């Protein structure tokens, strides 16, 4: 952790971009905030004469994994921009100029990248708002304001304290902004996790009403994504929790990323438990889970205490009241066993 070290201001974005060569790569997360940040940064880079290729990081992927490093290894790129995917010491490419735009708790700081992190700000902004400030360093970015608002709504329960949000509300209307956010947030939870249609739609639309209107063909595919996720959630919510001590596990199998929604739903109904929604069908060979609690218990501390030996960087991140992780089947079995759960929580290794 190097939180004390000063991060770079968004105002430095335009100048750093001038050091980029042709064909830079822009990498962003697949949720509403990551997509909005990506669309804003793509526009800013294009306006600065550095139009990028875009790679959306989605289901089961991590921008700082070895697999992603290998994917980028041979590419001829003139620079790298990474948005809303965390901040770590080692970037997936270290031989090209790089800019990181992010608001999560950093696990380190890359040595030579311009690192724009909101983590020291109060209130902590979203990646899309930081991206908007980056775009303002390139030139007039007024047409991109609504995208910053989409990211703010997508990531924050409370958007108070952000003047950009007040301005966007007044200009575009909060209802349309919220509906558009919900729509572009849907594809990342589907079985495919493919959010490219959402990115395209945010790019083509000139505001939230155009996202919703159906004038662009992507709207229909996002509505289908929403229906897919709603149906999967309906199924999973029929599953009864198993309780041992003060831990409740809801075990189900779905290719959709609904475990955070299931955990959130039970959190309010099992107020004195730590709730774990375990999805054995999200990715083959793995159990993905979300942990929530309405008690004052620190979930990060709880997960650290019962951490199975085989757990990796995908385990136990997030916040004190909202965490989770992904465990290989054998590690999940060790984890559930250590919590006192019986054979009904065991997952056959390699076959979820
Ligand atoms: Mn995100």
Element string (H = helix, E = strand):
HEHEHEEEHHHHHHHEEHEEHEEH
CATH architecture of the largest domain: Alpha-Beta Complex
Radius of gyration: 20 Å
For this structure, the CATH topology of the largest domain is inorganic pyrophosphatase (n-terminal core)
> How many helical stretches?
13
Based on CA inertia axes, which overall geometry fits? globular
**Biggest pleated sheet:** 6 strands, mixed
Overall pLDDT confidence: 94
Q: What structural class results from the helix and strand content?
A: alpha/beta
CATH class of the largest domain: Alpha Beta
Helix content: 25-40%
The small-molecule ligands in this entry are:
manganese (II) ion
Order of adjacent strands in the largest pleated sheet: 6-7-8-9-11-10
Distance between the termini: 35 Å
Beta fraction of the residues? 15-25%
List how many beta strands DSSP finds: 11
Count of all domains: 2
Low-confidence parts? none
Topology record:
Elements: H1 13-17, E1 25-29, H2 32-47, E2 53-57, H3 66-73, E3 80-83, E4 98-102, E5 114-117, H4 127-138, H5 145-155, H6 163-172, H7 174-185, H8 196-204, H9 208-212, H10 218-236, E6 242-244, E7 247-252, H11 259-267, E8 274-279, E9 286-293, H12 299-305, E10 315-318, E11 322-328, H13 329-338
Parallel strand pairs: 1-2, 1-3, 3-4, 4-5, 7-8
Antiparallel strand pairs: 6-7, 8-9, 9-11, 10-11
Helix pairs in contact: 2-4, 2-5, 2-8, 4-5, 5-6, 5-7, 8-10
The structure holds manganese (II) ion.
